[in-house]
Amino acid sequence: MWDEAGDAIPEPLACFKLLHELAHAKFHKHAISSFSYSTESQIAYAENTESAEWQANAWAALVMAPAYLAVGCDDRASFMCRFNFPSEFYDFWRALQERRPLRMSSEFCLRCGSQSVAIIASRLRCIACGVSCR
After folding, report:
1. 72 and 17, same structural domain?
2. What is the CA radius of gyration of the chain?
């Protein structure tokens, strides 16, 4: 895939597409038959927000720009300045954040003392210094 991209597409988009394909390899091994030429073997796709393509895009977007690092990026320009992220997926990333906003903890970071501690899955991570608090 990387060889096919070459210089034809910008680096941020090439990285996003590579992460997208890695997401398929990681999460959708069971769906390999969906790419079969046999209509009996193909898997019917679910709603857009549950489809394998949507999931792969979501994973790629969150790996390239984790929500806890994007705090303070209030517009497209500041986001694009902080991350080497393909501009065509910025609106998708923003929609992901609206669907599942970053939750903040009331705890302080033991390393830097900041109260900007985010809850990511079941872990706490300081937004100020990036250290895992738990």
Report:
1. yes
2. 18
Domain that holds residue 23: 2-101
Please give the structure tokens belonging to residue 21.
Answer: 């394909």
Let me know whether 65 and 114 are in one domain. Answer: no
Residue carrying the six token digits 């906003």:
101
pLDDT at 37 over 80: no
Residue range 44-60, pLDDT digits in tens:
544 555 678 888 999 99
Amino acid at 15: C
Buried b (16+ CB within 10 A) or exposed e, 28-53: beeeeeeeeeeeeeeeeeeeeeeebe
Q: Which of 118, 82, 124, 116 is nearest to 101 (CA)?
A: 118
